[in-house]
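User: Can you write out an input/output pair for a complex, sequences first and structure second?

Assistant: Here is one pair. Inputs:
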Amino acid sequence: MSKKSYRQAINEALRQEMRRDPNIIVLGEDVAGGQGASGETGVVGSVFGVLSGLYKEFGPERVIDTPISESAIIGTAAGAALTGLRPVPEIMFVDFVGVCFDQIYNQTAKFRYMFGGKAKAPMVMRATIGAGLRAGAQHSQTLHPLFTMVPGLKVAMPSNAYDAKGLMIESLRGDDPVIFLESKVLYDSQMEVPDEAYRLPFGEGHVVREGDAVTIVAFGPCVMRATAAADALAKDGIAVEIVDPRTTSPLDEDTILESVEKTGKLVVVDESPPRCSLAADIAGIVADKGFEYLKAPIKSVTCPHTPVPFAPNLEDEFLPNPRRIEAAVRSLLKYDRA
Amino acid sequence: MQLSREELVKAYRRMSTIRAFEERVEKEFAAGNIPGFAHVYIGQEAVAVGICHDLTDEDYIGSTHRGHGHCIAKGCDVKGMMLEIFGKAGGLCGGKGGSMHIADVSKGMLGANAIVGGSPPIAVGAALTQKYKKTGKIAVAFSGDGASNQGTTFEALNMAVVLGAPAIFVFENNGYGEHTAASYSVGALSIAERARSFGLPAETIDGSDFFAVRDAMGRALERGRKGEGPYALEVKCWRHRGHFVGDPQAYRTPAEVAEARTHDPIALFRGKVSGAKLLDTSDLDQIDAGILQEIEEAVEAACAAPRPDIKTLQTDVYARY
């Protein structure tokens, strides 16, 4: 056990699994870096440094720099997965799936079903998500609802370094295609992470903080924001419960419903425009399956129905920030628990 | 030619099986026995059979929406195919794929693909596996003149060159992408020239001649098996039928269709092998009779088979969920 960043935890998971399983390969733009250039090869390790050192250890056959061709990156990974490898393609920013979505949702996700269960495509597509870096409308989206609605894909959205390592190892040992969404604003966040390999199952949420006043469900970087709001509310004696489902597909409905049964009130925090978001999805599930537990309307804290803005003050207001989460929780306190 | 009698019989059997299979598919479709859409391969038999003739089950192919011929040429079970196309239990994909998604990975057939340009990137991946594992095997991407205009195809061509993957791109230029002529839609006119500009060797060949196709594929295969990288073949061929079964083909004249049908790979093959006294016409007729019987049995089985169990609706989505 030692203190590791979210970035280091993912790197360690990949490194340990690549040592264990020679069928794992990594491919994407600048995953090594420096190909064909005059300096050192392998010094980039992907744009946020998550793959740092992998090229040096595993070489060009397993850490493969590709052209900027997302359809061919995902298609190559899909074909490799279908024929016995475990590719880990990287889409540098999740925003770029617009140019390769066919290979994700029409091809990779559907092979197993279309072929009557006689095929598997164990691919782990990594992509960075989220706003907050002043990167503008085409480098800041999250897009998890797009993947979550596709049958055949699993979707992980780790909110901390410990979960990131365990979910990555689980992804690499399963036989299904996984969309692994890494939060850019969490890459430097640190915590104690075991040195050895361990697995966290998909579809098993985590109660980050216990409380009885209101349930907050949050994913990825929104868990950090919900925690900040909860700290502020605690000063007024308001104890919120935070549930981090960790994966959006499969979704741990049971843990969410158990918490709502206890608190009777639900706020869903989602870094997404509001329509067809995970917030809307979870609100729908709870209205359907937990109607009798509810003592108050379900509130969502999402982004507005806009692209991600550039100017810092606009982007800060765009995000589901702690102030808006706190206000949503407070708006539910007037409903009587009786 | 350099093919044994046995090899010639194998090639003829496969071409004739494709023809008989597809003619029967047309009939069964018209009778309402086949749900959805069907795109038949009649007229292009020598392409699939010539390309796949020297492949093993460990070599891979990715196919198109017009994929029945590729399946048969790669050795997929004809009865399993017919059951699949009928949407019946026991089909190659359990009735979940259908004509446009028919596959048998155990035979190296990575699926018909209903997205034009869907297969080329996937074939590059299958080829990358062979390179990584040093198997000496290859992967073929079948696609058409239509797919030659897709960005995915351009990306796949470049990716194969950059990775040195043993992918063989077979462009079946049958003159039409759906209902639009290649003479209109393929700006460069020569698909081989276009492929060559990506940095890989490319040839243009006559797709009605099994022997020409097999010879060209031999050159591509030699390069791929030696680990020397990708190859492209533009195969000129003729679509004897419409885009789909039932297409009235108002976009081309009866004279053009009649001319297309004069390019008949099966008649050409029969003429060549009987002319060279390699196989007798009576031998070929006997093969045909056996095939018709096999297709008849496949159709009878498909008619008699039940629909997939309703319980299978939600199976096979994930390995584990």
